[in-house]
Specification:
Layout: H1 3-37, H2 44-86, H3 92-104, H4 110-118, H5 124-136, H6 153-169, H7 176-191, H8 200-203, H9 209-220
């Protein structure tokens, strides 16, 4: 990976780790809320006051995490992604691929074309150049899902930032906000050719998302 991909990797993994901590905080809040509601000698007003205090602490945790960790990390991810988008180096690999497309043309099969362009995942300029050559030779349909890897870094980063902002503006009492951001980031990394150290689910301590939600619910309700 290049230096920009390394930046995206490290900052994404920082966010993954913080999302996992926020998930633990949500579960702790839910468990505390359950205990408060079971208090036999506390008035309803007293219970509501305790729940509101716990909710205020949870909201502060979300907002602080957004301001100090998530937003700065996303800013670095944007900077790296936009820098990658501007790069175009006519490497030996790209030159060879363009030459092969021009020479072999219709003889190229999907099995040949897919690994040809997949080697340039994360290299926006190379993918755009190769796509143009494939389109000129009427080979684009054989290239599979190539177009999913050619996108505006600005647009993708804006979607990530919008989702992250909900952690600040609407700090929730469920796990969905953080999990959605993590899944969006994981997909973004794959599209940018970034090799993460481990899947997002492993930061959550689960085999998959279904297992994560199930385990969190069990913990929250003391099952």
């Amino acid at each position: 990976m290049n230096e920009h991909q390394e930046t995206i990797k490290s900052e994404t993994e920082r966010i993954f780790a913080r999302i996992a901590l926020l998930g633990n905080a949500v579960t702790a809040f839910q468990a505390e809320q359950g205990k408060i509601q079971k208090q036999e000698y506390t008035t309803q007003e007293g219970k509501e006051k305790q729940v509101n205090q716990a909710l205020h602490a949870l909201s502060d945790n979300f907002r602080t995490s957004y301001e100090n960790v998530i937003a700065p990390a996303l800013a670095k991810i944007r900077e790296a992604a936009e820098a990658m988008e501007q790069q175009l180096t006519l490497s030996a690999e790209l030159s060879a691929a363009l030459t092969l497309v021009g020479v072999a043309g219709d003889k190229l099969t999907g099995e040949t074309l897919r690994p040809m362009w997949q080697q340039f995942i994360g290299n926006h300029g190379a993918l755009v150049a190769l796509r143009a050559a494939l389109e000129q030779c009427e080979l684009l349909q054989r290239a599979g899902d190539m177009d999913q890897y050619i996108f505006s870094a600005d647009s993708k980063c804006t979607l990530l930032e919008d989702q992250a902002l909900t952690l600040y503006t609407q700090p929730g009492t469920n796990l969905n906000q953080g999990v959605r951001l993590g899944r969006m980031l994981e997909d973004f990394c794959e599209k940018e050719g970034v090799e993460l150290s481990k899947p997002f689910t492993q930061y959550l301590g689960a085999e998959d998302y279904s297992a994560y939600y199930t385990e969190r619910l069990k913990t929250a309700f003391g099952v």
